[in-house]
Q: What sequence folds into this?
């Protein structure tokens, strides 16, 4: 099984096969418009602009499971990204990434790139861990997505290469994207 085997939905509910991204390097991200990490949209868009002509795509999936930080509709999430951050990469229908209702794509991604722990030298990582411990301690165990803006890097063959936790900025791994292109 590969990423290309999954069907997702555009914000308007239209199904789309990830097969259409075959041969491209992908970054798949669960997003939210009212999150501490929301400003990452800026850097994600810059990364997209820099590499899209070389076969790079970012796929955003709004999620409301973390602090109810994506309360609106899928269409509202898309509009927010475009109006506030000039996002040009696709933002899909809102989904769940954890629990029984988790979208199969994210269940697959979590299995392919398990959680590697919190970087205790990173202040944002420490703060995130404390917040999760307080609000959603069940997400601290296993490979569950810990918060919004968890990112998965996929190579041109559809293999999951790496998982980046929310506190990892897109600029911190741009060289890894470039290496796959």
A:
């Amino acid at each position: 099984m590969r990423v290309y085997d999954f069907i997702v939905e555009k914000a308007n509910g239209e199904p789309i096969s990830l097969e259409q991204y075959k041969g491209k390097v992908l970054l798949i991200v669960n997003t939210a418009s009212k999150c501490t990490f929301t400003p990452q949209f800026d850097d994600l868009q810059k990364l997209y602009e820099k590499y899209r002509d070389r076969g790079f795509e970012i796929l955003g999936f709004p999620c409301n499971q973390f602090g109810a930080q994506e309360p609106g509709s899928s269409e509202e999430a898309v509009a927010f990204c475009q109006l506030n951050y000039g996002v040009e990469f696709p933002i899909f229908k809102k989904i769940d990434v954890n629990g029984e209702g988790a979208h199969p794509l994210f269940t697959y991604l979590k299995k392919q790139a398990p959680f590697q722990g919190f970087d205790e030298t990173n202040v944002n990582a420490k703060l995130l861990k404390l917040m999760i411990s307080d609000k959603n301690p069940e997400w601290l165990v296993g490979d569950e997505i810990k918060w919004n803006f968890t990112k998965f890097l996929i190579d041109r063959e559809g293999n999951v290469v790496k998982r980046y936790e929310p506190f990892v900025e897109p600029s911190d791994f741009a060289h890894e994207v470039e290496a796959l292109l």
